[in-house]
Amino acid sequence: MTNPNGIAVAIIGSGNIGTDLMIKVMRQSKYLSMGAMVGIDPASDGLARAARLGVPTTHEGIEGLLKLPNFQDIRIVFDATSAGAHARHNAVLQKHGIKVIDLTPAAIGPYTVPVVNLEDNLDAPNINMVTCGGQATVPIIAAISQVTPVHYAEIIASISSKSAGPGTRANIDEFTETTSKAMQVVGGATVGKAIIVLNPAEPPLLMRDTIYT
């Protein structure tokens, strides 16, 4: 189910994104092991699922993570909360020498889209993973910019309302700003613009991204 000898990681944020990542770490990663799942809602489905899988949990946020008996073993923390919360989480974790993978649009660390520039940022203490829309579209913009100047790039990310938890909804402005910036910094566009659409259709639609350059 998980690699007991892998690098111990913690996930902050027990919502849809954090829970999905936990399952991926446990089922698919050869190099990572789940050290902790952190949330702020004791009734969270994600925390309950983690506990059933034998993962240490806390509903006391970053303070609870620091108090876990195995905290000293944690080497990497994935933050799947909100842009506002991430700034505080990062400040705390950097004091302990922990590498932080930012899954919010906070954009504290260098813009990182692995298929384009992973090697550039491996040593950064905070890895800014842009946004889901950015990861899906920036590689295509970067590919276009290698063969012709991209004066303007625009992406529209359509996602299911059901998949957008409170953190995603709180980050709409940050999503558009961070994605737009990544289209320029990593994608090579002179001007970038991102738009996000939450679609309430039933059954829920799969995420779709449209790119215009």
SSE inventory with pairings:
Elements: E1 7-12, H1 16-28, E2 32-38, H2 45-52, E3 57-58, H3 61-67, E4 76-79, H4 83-94, E5 99-102, H5 114-117, E6 126-128, H6 132-145, E7 152-160, H7 166-170, H8 172-185, E8 191-199, E9 208-212
Parallel strand pairs: 1-2, 1-4, 2-3, 4-5, 5-6, 7-8
Antiparallel strand pairs: 7-9
Give an overview in words.
The structure is a single chain. With 213 residues, the protein is an alpha/beta fold. It is 36% helix and 23% strand. The strands form two sheets. Strands 3-2-1-4-5-6 form a six-stranded parallel β-sheet, with helices on both faces. Strands 8-7-9 form a three-stranded mixed β-sheet, covered by helices on one side. The longest helix is centred in the middle third of the chain and has 14 residues, at 132-145.
Brief sketch in words of this structure:
It is built from eight helices and nine strands. It is of the alpha/beta class and 213 residues long.
Annotation keywords:
8 helices, six-stranded parallel beta sheet, three-stranded mixed beta sheet, globular, 36% helix, 9 strands, 213 residues, alpha/beta
Helical/strand content category: alpha/beta
Count every beta strand, where a strand is a DSSP E run of 2 or more residues: 9
Overall geometric form: globular
Poorly predicted spans: none
Which percent range fits the helix content? 25-40%
Approximate strand percentage: 15-25%
